[in-house]
Amino acid sequence: MYKKRLTKEQVLQKLRFYCRYQQRCESEIKDKLFELGINKKDHDALVNELVKENCVSDDRFAQAFVRGRFKLKQWGRRKIQKGLKDILDLIAKRYKHGDVKHFKKIKVFGLQVFGKTI
């Protein structure tokens, strides 16, 4: 937990560096905001700002997750599906609520996923 108060721009800069290191999903960003001691009411605005800047993308995260687990860690279909469950539920909720401007349905290992082809 950070002791000093950070401005909105300082927080965004830290999050940009955090996202550049590797693909992140929105829940990881919210966890980081909690670590930084940012008020919970500001979380959605900051995450939306990063999404607009294309720093955070759940579909890119899902693609990287599947590729890494399949190729590097040699995980199977079931284990990958179980690991992706939370992120896929979040993406599916967005899809059902009509926020589909940057999501398309695809299949990964027979699982319905939203985003670009992996």
Quick one: overall form? globular
| CA-CA gap between termini | 36 Å
- Provide the residue-averaged pLDDT: 78
Oligomer: single chain
Largest sheet descriptor: 2 strands, antiparallel
Beta-strand percent range: 5-15%
- Our count of domains comes out at 2
Strand count: 2
> Helix amount, in percent?
55-70%
Strand order of the largest sheet: 1-2
Instruction: Indicate the structural class.
Output: mainly alpha
Using only C-alpha atoms, the radius of gyration works out to: 15 Å
Order of helices and strands: HHHHHEE
Number of helices: 5
Instruction: Detail the poorly predicted runs.
Output: 114-118
Question: What descriptors fit this protein?
Answer:
2 domains, 5 helices, globular, mainly alpha, 118 residues, 62% helix, disordered C terminus
